[in-house]
Amino acid sequence: MDLLEHNGTHLVRVTPRHGGDGPGWVAANLDGLRSAMLDHAAVMVKSLDLGEQDELAGLAELIGGKTLEYNERSTPRSRVKGNVYTSTEYPADQSIPQHNESAYSSNWPHNLYLYCAKAAATGGETPVADSGAVLDRLPRDLVARFEEHGVLYTRTYRTGMGLSWQEGFQTDDKAYVDRYCAEHDIESEWDGDVLRTRQRRPAVVEHPITGRRVWFNQAHLFHVHALPEAVREGLLEICGEDGLPRNAYLGDGAPITPEELTAIQGAYEATILAERWEDGDLIMIDNLLTTHGRRPFTGDRKVLVSMTQREG
């Protein structure tokens, strides 16, 4: 076992001897794997070599509890089988910034399990960055404002611009969407077939087991200034600020300044740690304690994901 570290971010790297029975090795080492995730937030198991892709969900449930469907979506993904999905389907030449999975939702996963079915020819790493280390690097006045007010996420679902509401909520039933929003503290408003939502979520949370305070939100991803300037200006001209596919504010509706976004993005960049994927590798992540992203790549790349919540 190797422990890698960079500016407060840790990744445990394990190369097991399992004789071709990766799931059996995991079952025999459950306590150690769970402890390593809590202690260090991210664990890479080398050459686990699952025989079937849908084995990932069973492995995830064995370690972390009930697997989740990917609902209330913010990015495009495809279901492989059951609760196993492709990782976010963005163009290969683009990076995906660091983020805690579904931090905008009240139904976020506790753990993520990412399995490399095919490694890219170059690039394509899944970097991790420790959420507590990110919090520690942010200015105190910024943290105080976010901790007091939380984050307000706004979304406009329309066909042909970002995700449609049918894709986002995985249904064609408006009544189901209304019920889901009411049950998950999401304000919703229909304008014909266009859906607008608003939801307030915390920016800083405490891990329920370790007690560690962490930066846990997607303000920097949802905010319109996260987009390239040309894309941002085009969307603002077409949609106006109130009709953007997604945006973020402080929880009281006050704007998040470009300077604050720069500080947040800088804290992530300073703490990133990345290991190259190889076929058959598995990365297990505590979704509160660490973020993940994706680097650009060349060639074919196939990384699958299953997400879990602990019981109780």
TrEMBL record:
The protein's name in its UniProt record: TauD/TfdA-like domain-containing protein
Alphabetical list of InterPro entries matching this protein: AlphaKG_dependent_hydroxylases, TauD-like_sf, TauD/TfdA-like
Taxonomic classification: Bacteria, Bacillati, Actinomycetota, Actinomycetes, Kitasatosporales
Domain TauD/TfdA-like, chain residue ranges per copy: 19-306
Coiled coil: none
Alphabetical keyword list: Antibiotic biosynthesis, Iron, Oxidoreductase
Domain of life where this protein originates: Bacteria
Presence of the UniProt keyword Electron transport in the record: no
Gene Ontology MF, one: oxidoreductase activity
GO biological process per UniProt: antibiotic biosynthetic process
Cofactor(s), names only, from the UniProt record: Fe(2+)
